[in-house]
Amino acid sequence: MGAGELLVNARPFRKVLVANRGEIAVRILTACRTAGLATVAVASDADVGARHARLADELVVLGPAPARESYLDAGKILDAARSTGADAIHPGFGFLSENAAFARAVLEAELAWIGPPPAAIEAMGLKVPSRERMRAAGVPVVPGTHDLTDEGIAAIGFPLVVKASAGGGGKGMRVVHAAADLASAVESCRREAEAAFGDPTLYAERYLERPRHVEVQVFGDVHGRVVALGERECSLQRRHQKVVEESPSPVVSPELRARMSGAAVAAAKAVGYVNAGTVEFLLEPDGSFYFLEMNTRLQVEHPVTEEAWGLDLVALQLSIAAGEPLPADLPEAPVAHAIEARVYAEDPENGFLPQVGTVLAYEEPGGPGVRVDSGIEAGSEVSVHYDPMLAKVVARGRTREEARRRLVDALGRTVILGVATNVSWLRRLLATDEFARGELDTSLLSRLEVPAPPEPPAEVLAAAARALSGADARVASPLSRASIPDPFAGGAFRVLG
């Protein structure tokens, strides 16, 4: 990567187009408004009335609901920036946020790109080359190989995990416990990788039994400084997707934090990194850790770092993209403990199947140390076309236990009617002994018995009936118990008293 690409358009800007939707679009638009910047939102036909679409100063409608015809259409987004006079683009996360070609097109259009250099995105986008680059930079890497012959596999041994080089989100990934199962795993991973990413390249690495997933937030500026801003514990995962995150990790000591932070900074410097990024590690009980991947964007779970470290990461992104140096007085240790729960439109009592429909009523919790990042409101449509995450509920406390208790309480005061959600399940998960003790690993949710939902109290049913009847005249009246979503089965809920 040349210095020219790294420094392109690192200058002040006045109008930001947010190339995203939902809660992250709301979060970025709010930060831009606080910074005194004009804003442009984009929306598909399905999102014209969405919260993020109304929050911006200007709105450009991109077209049909499918993402490939709207939020993933780089040409339409660039046209929207030109037509509105936007001079910067923030991609958020997902969609085009880690698309190096789009980042390069933004820069070539002489717009500021609020993200890392395209070359850094490319360098970390493919797992096999990024592993080799990390190894050369002295960053610990899980023993692995791209040689899937018997000879190559023999150097790793079993169990191992076969992964798609261009993969993510658990796609193109299989754990293999014996040689007899290797060929079928490789074949199925290749098919899945080709279908999902257009790249069938695979590699294999040693399978770590019950590691923790700990990631480090990094930031780089255009002046060559790179810093680490603490770690996040992200071990609670279902199907390789994070469910609950916290900062700091309950098992990371100051000494281990220093070692992991040093490795994360080395990883970022190895690719000339600028702006926000996250270096993800697998952590073993003995304190050994290994590079997993780097996410070249703002993370979904960035609020826990903001709350634990007293920072505004989106504001920091904006200042860095404008060419400003990283502040000299960044914190060196957390000032609080924060835990975040991801609220999804899904049914935990039916295999966590995604749900669609209309949000009939929505009420966010408040109180000391409680924060909610959401993109929904009463009347919002939960569409089959997009990720089913509705909101992130975050609680901060002086201790981990205080944060945990506040989050359990906040989830109990969250009201979502009209679509089934995982809110009650999250509340029960956070109340388990395993979580309370911080005994976490990446496979815990596959083994953990989350308690069954209790019978909803009469007060909850009555509140749900009132909300439903007032929110949507189409709901029959009077409502029977059977016609009201079970507040404790992942549907709408509120705990009173």
Structural summary, described in words:
The protein has three domains: 3-114, Rossmann fold, CATH 3.40.50.20; 143-206, ATP-grasp fold, A domain (Dna Ligase, domain 1, 2-Layer Sandwich); 212-447, ATP-grasp fold, B domain (D-amino Acid Aminotransferase, Chain A, domain 1). The chain is built from 17 helices and 23 strands. The strands form six sheets. The chain has an eight-stranded antiparallel β-sheet, with helices on both faces. The chain has a five-stranded parallel β-sheet with strand order 3-2-1-4-5. The chain has 497 residues and is of the alpha+beta class. It has helices spanning 3-7, 22-34, 51-55, 74-84, 100-108, 118-125, 127-136, 150-154, 182-197, 254-270, 302-309, 313-321, 400-412, 423-430, 433-437, 444-447, 458-471, and strands at 15-18, 38-44, 58-63, 88-90, 112-113, 144-145, 160-164, 173-176, 202-206, 212-220, 226-238, 241-247, 275-283, 289-295, 337-344, 346-347, 353-354, 357-358, 361-363, 370-374, 381-382, 389-397, 415-417. The termini are far apart. Strand 2 (38-44), helix 3 and strand 3 (58-63) form a beta-alpha-beta unit.
